[in-house]
């Protein structure tokens, strides 16, 4: 899967495990847009035809709604909810190995 991780999702363990599972992963630093607004990240994901992976549900839900209201579409927004767990790497491993990412169905 072609993925773009926003600033809130850049975790080295997540990036390594996604890449090891065969996903094509781009992060804001690679794209030259680290620290930019959420809309900039979503525009990059749309332009490069990548699903956007974020931990930031609220802002991207609003951007998604705006795109639909304007009659547009996007490759997808995947929302990962972090557990307050000291063993997060196990959670990420489960997410990647089972090809499951929590995704709110926005449509």
Explain what this protein looks like in three dimensions:
With 107 residues, this protein is an alpha/beta fold. It has one domain. It has 5 helices and 4 strands; from the N terminus they run E-H-E-H-H-E-H-E-H. It has helices spanning 12-20, 28-31, 38-47, 57-69, 88-97, and strands at 2-5, 24-26, 51-54, 77-79. Helix 1 packs parallel to helix 5 (88-97). The longest helix is centred in the middle third of the chain and has 13 residues, at 57-69. Mean pLDDT is 78; it is low at 93-107.
Write the layout of secondary structure elements.
Layout: E1 2-5, H1 12-20, E2 24-26, H2 28-31, H3 38-47, E3 51-54, H4 57-69, E4 77-79, H5 88-97
Parallel strand pairs: 1-2, 1-3, 3-4
Helix pairs in contact: 1-5
Any descriptors?
about 110 residues, alpha/beta, 4 strands, about 45% helix
Count of discrete alpha- or pi-helical segments spanning 4 or more residues: 5
The secondary structure category is: alpha/beta
Count up the domains. 1
Average pLDDT across residues? 78
Oligomerization category of the chains in this entry = single chain
**Major beta sheet, strand line-up:** 2-1-3-4
| Low-confidence spans | 93-107
Instruction: State Rg.
Output: 13 Å
Distance between the termini: 21 Å
Query: Could you give the count of β-strands?
Result: 4
């Amino acid at each position: 899967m072609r993925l773009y991780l926003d600033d809130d999702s850049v975790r080295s363990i997540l990036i390594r495990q996604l890449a090891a599972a065969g996903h094509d992963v781009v992060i804001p630093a690679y794209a030259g847009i680290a620290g930019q607004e959420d809309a900039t990240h979503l525009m990059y994901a749309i332009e490069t035809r990548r699903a956007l992976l974020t931990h930031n549900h609220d802002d991207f839900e609003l951007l998604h709604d705006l795109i639909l209201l304007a009659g547009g579409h996007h490759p997808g927004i995947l929302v990962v909810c972090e557990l307050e767990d000291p063993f997060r790497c196990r959670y990420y491993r489960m997410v990647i190995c089972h090809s499951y990412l929590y995704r709110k169905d926005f449509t």
